Amino acid sequence: MTLRALDLAAPAVRSLSPYIPGKPISELEREYGVTDSIKLASNENPLGPGPSARAAIQAAVGDLGLYPDGNGFALKQALMRHHRCSMESITLGNGSNELLVMIAEAFLTPAVSAVYSQYAFAIYAIATHATGAMKRAAPAHPEGHRMALGHDLDAMYKLVDADTRLVFIANPNNPTGTWLEAEPLRRFIESVPPHVLVVVDEAYRQYASVPNYPDVAEWVAEMPNLIVSRTFSKAYGLAGLRVGYALSSPEVADVLNRVRQAFNVNSLALAAAAAALDDEEHLARTVELNRAGMAQLQAAFARLQLRQYPSACNFLLVDCGKPAGPVYESLLRRGVIVRPVGGYGLPNHLRVTIGTAEQNERMIAGFREILQGS
Ligand SMILES: *Cc1c(COP(=O)(O)O)cnc(C)c1O
Prior knowledge:
By secondary structure, the chain is α/β, with parallel strands linked by helices. It folds into two domains: 118 residues, Aspartate Aminotransferase, domain 1, CATH 3.90.1150; 227 residues, 3-Layer(aba) Sandwich (Aspartate Aminotransferase, domain 2). The mean pLDDT is 97. The longest helix is centred in the C-terminal third of the chain and has 24 residues. 39% of the residues lie in helices and 14% in strands. Pyridoxal-5'-phosphate (PLP) binds next to helix 6.
């Protein structure tokens, strides 16, 4: 007897395409027989965790025989100090990815819809699809716009109707690097009807030193339909531990906690995240390294005459001017992993994470050899 598992799956799951993550270094080295590779594909912090997070992880190892604190009390205390918010407004997640899935699970059904932008972070579509809800992707700003490929809030607003329950906004957005300014974003959240929750995903906010970038966490107290999601995976350098959090009204947090697994954040992650939050020195070093690396890469891509997009993140989107697949493959053979974004409908583009000066130089040398043969 053969088991046709796919036929047995829920209809929405049957048609779900899984997320394709950046290629891990170990996989590249296994498949291509290269060594000494670098990964500039998943927007990780090239410095890794800071010294206080490392120390907190070491100190927590002895307790690994016990279940973690399912309520995450100590991390929530640190977050309360950091955001001057109440315990009841915080929901912890196994990475912010899990929070996005929890939000979809809690608020979406096949009878309602979620709105997001074309070129928005892929997880919004996946999390929505899995619930069977309708997916409404608004056209992004066109080429030529000063925020080309970025979220067009007016276009998104037009897709909001009586059936809409969620709007996903990435600020700044991955894979485009684009961002939204405070005023239009505030007006958007204030103008959607009260049956619509707006999720503002701020995975890259620590890197966003752009004018009029909003501090949306400060709006939560006055906006009951706003959910902010943050992560320790990017600027805090803890991607491997999987921890993020959402800030919302206590009522929304109560709903999210009903779908949350009892021990969804592990004890090393809880300890490291609390320590990382207070390590402003490591964060400052991270942001400065990124600023310098962005200047280095922007100058290099300009010399290579590759079109690039403004970015408020720790990555750049570049247009190879031809199908990016062969460029990606050639970089892999040189031990450099970047991120193809064909799945986003950008077959000529690559997304490259900003690394250390040395890693950036190695990636640029690869581009130069591949595109100019020198
Ligand atoms: C990386 C990323 C996340 C998710 O990161 P986690 O590791 O799950 O916290 C969320 N949103 C965006 C836009 C991202 O790029």
